[in-house]
Write a structure and sequence with these properties.
With 298 residues, the protein is mainly β. The protein is 8% helix and 39% strand. Strands 2-3-4-5-6-7-9-10-11-12-13-14 form a twelve-stranded antiparallel β-barrel. Strands 1-8 form a two-stranded parallel ribbon. The protein is globular.
Length: 298
């Protein structure tokens, strides 16, 4: 059986692409914080509050130091084509929940990966803790693909990481009240360090860098262009909300652009939808006066 590289998150059992393949490394690393990016709308209440990332996708293949705010449940489904070292497509999903105020305390995000969507089988688990620290910055620590079945996973011991993210405070975003430029750097083992057996057999070595990074810049209102290094390879990604005032977000990208790992470029896509269970970090408490104060600072 081919080794799996489970990835992005889902609330639906999808019958398409039910064959297990190797492809899922390309989007597995994106798992946790993806829905944090989709739901998070922590716009500042007053002018003195730091600029935070906008509400669009900041990354797909790498974790972020930013977490969610408040409580919500979410589902994401994602797929890649072609899977690494095959000519097939691959798909995976997850469901999860999030709670906690990362500005005052910590935010906790927990989710379940579903590797075989058509059968609701081959589950593994993820947990991420995040906390905002100094101005415009946040840190997260997490474990991905925990307690996975060693028969269908090439990372049975799980992946652990720590990530730091910062939103630049000196630039004006197209989305009012937010920063247009955010970067992340982190270190981890497992998915970020160990190459697949196929890479080893192809003479590409056993280890990646163990260091991942991303840079995200808002090119249009609420649409970012992201460059990412996963510890294994280079990729570019973006994402959109196709319908105004609709929380569903589509992410897409291309990965494996160097010969450092893998055998060819891989295209990936995801769809995620969050359902908020409560008010988030004071967004709903902002008055028109507060908005005008922020507007006048630009």
């Amino acid at each position: 059986m081919l080794l799996l590289r489970p990835a992005i998150i889902c609330a639906i059992a999808v019958l398409l692409f039910s064959e297990t393949t190797l492809a899922q490394n390309a989007f597995e690393n994106a798992l946790m914080r993806k829905m944090d990016s989709l739901v998070r709308e922590p716009g500042p209440e007053l002018a003195r509050i730091p600029f935070l990332p906008n509400n669009s996708i900041q990354s797909i293949m790498t974790p972020s130091g930013w977490g969610g705010n408040g409580s919500y449940i979410y589902g994401v489904v994602g797929g890649v084509y072609p899977a690494l070292y095959t000519q097939k497509a691959d798909m995976i999903g997850a469901i999860g929940f999030c709670f906690g105020n990362s500005a005052k305390y910590i935010n906790v995000s927990a989710s379940v990966n579903i590797t075989r969507l058509s059968e609701l089988r081959d589950l593994s688990y993820n947990i991420v803790l995040s906390r905002r620290i100094f101005k415009g910055s946040s840190i997260s620590v997490g474990g991905l693909q925990l307690f996975s079945d060693p028969v269908v996973s090439d990372a049975p011991a799980g992946t652990y990481y720590i990530a730091f993210s910062h939103s630049v405070q000196t630039l004006k975003a197209k989305t009012e009240g937010y920063s247009p430029l955010t970067y992340t750097i982190g270190v981890g083992n497992g998915r970020f360090l160990l190459k697949s057996p196929y890479d080893v057999l192809a003479g590409k070595g056993k280890y990646g860098t163990g260091v991942f990074a991303s840079v995200s810049y808002e090119i249009f209102r609420n649409i970012n262009l992201n460059a990412e290094w996963s510890g294994m390879n280079l990729g570019f990604s973006s994402g959109i909300r196709p319908i105004k005032n609709f929380n569903g977000t589509i992410g897409f990208g291309v990965y494996n652009l160097t010969k450092y790992s893998g055998d060819k470029p891989t295209f990936l896509a995801s769809f995620g939808y969050p359902i908020a269970l409560g008010r988030r970090d004071g967004v709903e408490r902002r008055s028109n006066k507060d908005k005008n104060i922020r507007k006048n600072t630009f």
